[in-house]
Amino acid sequence: MPPAHPFDFDAVDADKLHEECGVFGVIGVTDAANFVALGLHALQHRGQEAGGIVSYSPEDGFNSARRFGYVRDNFTSVSLMETLPGALAIGHVRYSTAGSKGAAIRDVQPFFGEFSMGGAAIAHNGNITNAEALRRELIERGSIFQSSSDSECIIHLMARSLQRDIPARMEDALRRVEGAFSVVAMTRTKLIGVRDPLGVRPLVLGKLADGGYVLSSETCALDIIGAEFVREIEPGEMVVISGGKVESRRPFRAQPSKFCIFEHVYFSRPDSIIGGRSVYETRRQIGVELAREAPVEADLVCPVPDSGTPAAIGFAHESGIPYGMGIIRNQYMGRTFIEPTEQIRNMGVRLKLNVNRALIRGKRVILVDDSVVRGTTSRKIKEMILDAGAAEVHFRIASPPTAWPCFYGVDTPQREKLLAATMSEDEMREHLGVDSLKFISLDGLYRAVGASEQGRNNSCPQYCDACFSGEYPVEPADMIEKGFKLKTAAE
Amino acid sequence: MPPAHPFDFDAVDADKLHEECGVFGVIGVTDAANFVALGLHALQHRGQEAGGIVSYSPEDGFNSARRFGYVRDNFTSVSLMETLPGALAIGHVRYSTAGSKGAAIRDVQPFFGEFSMGGAAIAHNGNITNAEALRRELIERGSIFQSSSDSECIIHLMARSLQRDIPARMEDALRRVEGAFSVVAMTRTKLIGVRDPLGVRPLVLGKLADGGYVLSSETCALDIIGAEFVREIEPGEMVVISGGKVESRRPFRAQPSKFCIFEHVYFSRPDSIIGGRSVYETRRQIGVELAREAPVEADLVCPVPDSGTPAAIGFAHESGIPYGMGIIRNQYMGRTFIEPTEQIRNMGVRLKLNVNRALIRGKRVILVDDSVVRGTTSRKIKEMILDAGAAEVHFRIASPPTAWPCFYGVDTPQREKLLAATMSEDEMREHLGVDSLKFISLDGLYRAVGASEQGRNNSCPQYCDACFSGEYPVEPADMIEKGFKLKTAAE
Amino acid sequence: MPPAHPFDFDAVDADKLHEECGVFGVIGVTDAANFVALGLHALQHRGQEAGGIVSYSPEDGFNSARRFGYVRDNFTSVSLMETLPGALAIGHVRYSTAGSKGAAIRDVQPFFGEFSMGGAAIAHNGNITNAEALRRELIERGSIFQSSSDSECIIHLMARSLQRDIPARMEDALRRVEGAFSVVAMTRTKLIGVRDPLGVRPLVLGKLADGGYVLSSETCALDIIGAEFVREIEPGEMVVISGGKVESRRPFRAQPSKFCIFEHVYFSRPDSIIGGRSVYETRRQIGVELAREAPVEADLVCPVPDSGTPAAIGFAHESGIPYGMGIIRNQYMGRTFIEPTEQIRNMGVRLKLNVNRALIRGKRVILVDDSVVRGTTSRKIKEMILDAGAAEVHFRIASPPTAWPCFYGVDTPQREKLLAATMSEDEMREHLGVDSLKFISLDGLYRAVGASEQGRNNSCPQYCDACFSGEYPVEPADMIEKGFKLKTAAE
Amino acid sequence: MPPAHPFDFDAVDADKLHEECGVFGVIGVTDAANFVALGLHALQHRGQEAGGIVSYSPEDGFNSARRFGYVRDNFTSVSLMETLPGALAIGHVRYSTAGSKGAAIRDVQPFFGEFSMGGAAIAHNGNITNAEALRRELIERGSIFQSSSDSECIIHLMARSLQRDIPARMEDALRRVEGAFSVVAMTRTKLIGVRDPLGVRPLVLGKLADGGYVLSSETCALDIIGAEFVREIEPGEMVVISGGKVESRRPFRAQPSKFCIFEHVYFSRPDSIIGGRSVYETRRQIGVELAREAPVEADLVCPVPDSGTPAAIGFAHESGIPYGMGIIRNQYMGRTFIEPTEQIRNMGVRLKLNVNRALIRGKRVILVDDSVVRGTTSRKIKEMILDAGAAEVHFRIASPPTAWPCFYGVDTPQREKLLAATMSEDEMREHLGVDSLKFISLDGLYRAVGASEQGRNNSCPQYCDACFSGEYPVEPADMIEKGFKLKTAAE
């Protein structure tokens, strides 16, 4: 029996971790908002719930449009884009956070504030781990919050700064803020980009042929507008771009960087380049590592589409087992906003994925997926594969067990919902009912991303891997206040 | 410079041939319309412009809903689906035809007619080649047409039949009709399926666990609702399903069948089964044939996503050259309805595809695509690949040159717009500016689809391959009247 | 307690008889559809549910737009009106009929048919009393109906006529049709107007300064576009307007005319002119008659707004009792489409009307209303007046008791719902709980409309007054088949 | 020729002064928001552009909905009203101000602020004359404004107050504010109402049968929900309603009151009661005074509908000249938001008003209107009346010449656009081209509203009549800063 309202959800994606945001900004081009729309379209995988653009022109001042839904369904109409004139614009795409009860347009960024020296808009990727304490303090002092977003703290802190120019106010504000943030901001004349001292979330600088500058979460969004990739904004760096010049500032105390290793595994697009490496190549290399770490005799290496594809190609290449599309993805799935029950979530995978029965029948199949979160989708896929007549099913996972929630801008279930938080690898294998289940080791992952031949430097890890290790580089203050327990020495 | 309204089109798909319709029907289940919605969702690749569902319940009679846009964006709301009660329903998805000036909701099927013995609804996949002559005759006799669709002739012919039951009227009507048709129809008590004598378009029969029956363009839509694949409706067969029984009739004179070979190449979903073969496997085999027919030294086999992927996997496997994702497709592209200019069409590929630059750089790349229609997209892709630093670019095409328009339910450009209609393979290679360009031979294609080891039986071809060969199994009467020239003996 | 969803209905209007349609057409002006939109806006009181316009231009052919809701909310957008080019256009506004289960856009006129000699569109005001018999016959012969409207018969009869030009086909068709009809139609070159032989519904001819011609249900719609009133189309007349010429035809056998007397009482706008008399003046005169027929001592003459106003002015003038606005109407009520329960209908008057308490308190009040249908509103108004402290309440009704349904294009409740069908005047007074209740006499009404000093000619009444007298000038064949009982000699 | 897009405006109303807001609040009833919707519907004449409702329930907290358009078109859907649960709710309707460039939903009230002791919402009728100075100061200190509304100052002043409960913060805030304000506010447990010390705008208290309390701009909105009128909130009074008790506070220094005299003339609904008098009766009395002050021989007294009607009734009664509806108003006009040109505004009256030609022809007509603002509509009406064949046209205006803009919450054109600011009565008569033109005298108006038999007390006027006299009871500080010149001794 199909569900009564069959498409109320997006079953496969619902069982993934989700990047919560993408940011993009352009200065120095005619109709900057059109470039931002294109950039956000290329960053849509970082946030599908809503998007917003703010632009500025001397004649029309600041203008803003915020919409639920895909960039292509909103920021494509002539009539809307004409309301966003000017040579300077920033934008934001966001994913809805699991806990929020009903999305509201007032939570959609960029956020805007009018100060005595002029207006500013900010777009934030990441998560402020002391946002609730800051919000309480600001309300106590008379600030009125318009959204439930942690990011709104930044603009209120800027409003209250005594500095006389906006970049300086932004430095003031961001020094009060803890957690992960890559921020793109704009004033009437400046495009500003900042990464937190650990550099948890990405942010890159690009340049257009005719002199404009671009800030973007990922390089794939530079490609779409034909911008040249200049460099990554460095952890703890602020760039202020104006009059064709890029000024670099260092508002924070220097620290060892902790880039999110999951950006390599899943969040970033495979055609983006991080740390000088193609994300696709890194993922393929994860497949190679996995084939070395956890080989198995089989007839077919089959990706769970689409995120498992590069690792499956690597696994097949390294193992010599033929690669094939055993699971076909429906191209016409969208994203909807109604929260499905656990039961419907199980049922729903079939709406998006179908088994290529003729290929699978009688074969020993290796399924390569990027991660296991709740395990609900994995279980369903295994059932579909067995129903189609597979002889054996082996799962190979391109990341270590996800045992801890992320508090730095990723939508993760509560810890107890994470399969790996409550089960060992063996228990998971049994729970999923597969012939074998193997995750790449943490060291294997570090090798694949090119950190070091030795793998992870346990005394000072080269990346933030809190979701695997439980080692949080920034203490999640708000969450601890709410009762979250950090990893104990015993664990 | 990005285009002013950046997403007004769908650049890659615009340079493909397009199946114009998918049909689906269910009898014998509660809330049949929900099953139809799921089935149409699985058939969405056969028509993205619009969809419609008609249902019947004894209490509420016939109800109908027709909408522009994707199935998942319309036939998902509780309030809409509640208007379609009953245990019997049929549905249709359609693609807009190139020539039509503006889409109108009245052109969206199913079409409905109230006769003295009760109502009937029909959904038609294919094209009636003598529709214009029939329409003139029917108007002369007092019929009032509501749409510009060729399919509407069928319901008017049924209305005028002197037969006293609806299936018999349908036989009457379809014997007047020439061309290609797979029709799913319903009365108050019967679900009916028919294929034209040549069996140009597909139609399959499925069965649900609890006794319901299903008719569908493809088997992939049986999978989504958990129906078992029973068999294909045979060319020239009519099935009348009622009271849990499937009655088979043969209203037409028997003829050798001419199934559309392009369904194997591109139209059908890879997880569908046609003639007992997985479409995916056929496409992979085309890649194998192509690697044998047209080998080349290279470093990377790279599909043009997504339709070129199975053939590329086959090519890589046969040739031993590594397979890799050199081109990344943006998952968030949709379909829009504004007709782009040729110039914008060239520019627009970048909105959907991006090159995986790090993978491509310095490599000799074999690009595997399913077909070349106008050639505009192929040229653009070649440029992107070269810009990214490829050393050589070799095109391998999984179908023979498309040199003739289809008149049997496929949206093709006029003959003079088809690259292969005006250029030899060599001229095309030069026009596209690639290092080599090879199409699979017609015999190779026939081998890959499993027709015969010898390939095509030229005295009586096993398939309709008019788009490649110019040999039309049914004379396109309306088009000839409008001036279309059939292939001459000299050609 | 207010109702849960407070505005789901339109309480006062719900207890009125309702004209079902207004028609309008223009030929010989640039952008004829704009004129039609204005005309329909002026005729909105004749039908608020939906409206439609068809236009023709040689370049663009026939175009059509049909919408639910007010004219001003639809036919006002540049983008819509630009789709209706040409110098010839017709339009229609309609009221929903009580019995229809859910309105459908396919029931909205004008109806269009493509014939072998070209297309035609028709807009019909009235009701065809043998429509169901005709529909059965047409379906039997192979016509496919698109709507549930009686008016669609006309276009199918035209389609099947053997005449070679469209006006002749229309004559053929209308000679088959019984009942009341004022039709405006168009071909590619002609604007056509017809009234049934009895002339039950109005239709007038106007002329624009620059040579264009206009057909309209009422003269008030000529005023809005600055057209000069030429004359009424006569009962049984067809006018064919083309090339600046008005040709008059007589397709029907001559009969004594039977114009609807309720057009004078309520349906027509007070600023329209019928039979050479201002409707406002006629209504004022009804008030004068009423004051003579049914005087009463009182302090205040108060209209039930807005339809009772002219008669109240006449009553006050004749009686010498001061006129005052004791009931204030909320200007912001609209029309909605949800069917209210009888209970909610009672409650709802207060949403539209409020008592001017300070004026009413302690006074003997004469309330002048145009008619009593179900009596629900009258009762509620009486209660509001008494709650506000009136000393006495006297109802004076500007029409005789409405005891019979209309079958000629007016939405009336079933006979048993009409208060006057089941109660004598005295019983009604008691039921309403007022100090006195008087209806104008049938003779008084005939005097007021200027028919004759003697009143009604009972042997051959000058008007159709079936709703008062039960004497139907055309036998309502379909209704009789369904069980409706005509007045017996005993009644 | 009709205008190209015929309904882009509302010609008659465009030439009136407009009240900018209505406010309404309820405490102590189930589903308070439904009551507020009804109340706002009854207050729709005070603001047609947009409306908003905030409700509070302990389970769901504060909820808010703000919409453009009529109350009945928005706050009627079950699904919307279900989002506004609770026993406490306030609402607001607003008119767009002439100067604002494009309406934004963020300008629609109520405004909401979350403070450390809980949330509060406010709805404001009136205008703060020092809002711009306050806004500058608040921004300087770090407040971020969300709207362009003057009313937002109040909530920011409250946020910054050091008082520990919300009513006390409101007192703090309102003591900083100059101008006219009637405010309805709510906390989680209290409904609050305040009028400024002069009591420029109205605010009344009502009581529901089952113990709930109501605050409303006018008494007519008490009637619709069946609430009993208790009393007016006094100038300078704050009422805090909670737990079934009404506490009265006096936060401001006492001053002589200055109620807006134009509320009597035009803004308030005729069925409301102000200062113990029916507004209808006051307007009728103005007509009586006018007939005494400015008699003229004529055949017909005719109101300019609908606002001139009560005065016309009074004029006819006092003069003995028959009253008649010489101008008929189209009931189906709505309000649209596109700004018409002066030229179109002239043309457009005909869309809303039509002359009752048969009544007017050959008569000497007295037209009674409530006011003359720009004079554009008056001129057009005069033309229509003369075109219809009137022998003479005499204008009688139920207010003195409007020569000064209002800065206390009324939308008035700039001073130079007011006809009376630049012309004497004689020049106006000539400009309008009428046979005579007379305004009621200021003393006559004061007599009619019942202020005193002697009329206006010039040393301390009993009302605010700044729009007539140029004597502003509160200095319009922001406007003076922008260059507005107060009346000089010489004027």
Q: How would you characterize this protein structure?
A:
The structure is a homotetramer of 491-residue chains. The radius of gyration of chain A is 23 Å and the shape is globular. In chain A, helix 10 (279-293) packs across helix 11 (309-319) and helix 12 (342-352) packs across helix 14 (376-387). In chain A, strands 4-3-5-2-11-10-12 form a 7-stranded antiparallel β-sheet. Chain A has a 6-stranded antiparallel β-sheet with strand order 6-7-8-9-13-14, covered by helices on one side. The first copy, chain A, has a 4-stranded parallel β-sheet with strand order 18-21-22-24, sandwiched between helices. Chain A is built from 19 helices and 25 strands. By secondary structure, chain A is of the alpha+beta class. In chain A, a hairpin with a 4-residue loop joins strand 8 and strand 9 (191-195). The longest helix of chain A has 15 residues, at 279-293. The interface between A and B is large, with 61 and 62 residues.
Helix content of chain A: 25-40%
Which structural class do you get from the secondary structure elements of chain A? Answer: alpha+beta
Number of helices of chain A: 19
Which residues of chain A sit in consecutive blocks of at least 5 with pLDDT less than 50? 1-12, 335-347
Determine the mean pLDDT of chain A: 90
Amount of beta strand of chain A: 15-25%
Strand arrangement, major sheet of chain A = 4-3-5-2-11-10-12
Sheet with the most strands of chain A? 7 strands, antiparallel
Distance from first to last alpha carbon of chain A: 44 Å
- Principal-axis shape of chain A equals globular
Number of strands of chain A: 25
Radius of gyration of chain A, taken over Cα atoms and rounded to an integer in Å: 23 Å
- Name the quaternary structure: homotetramer
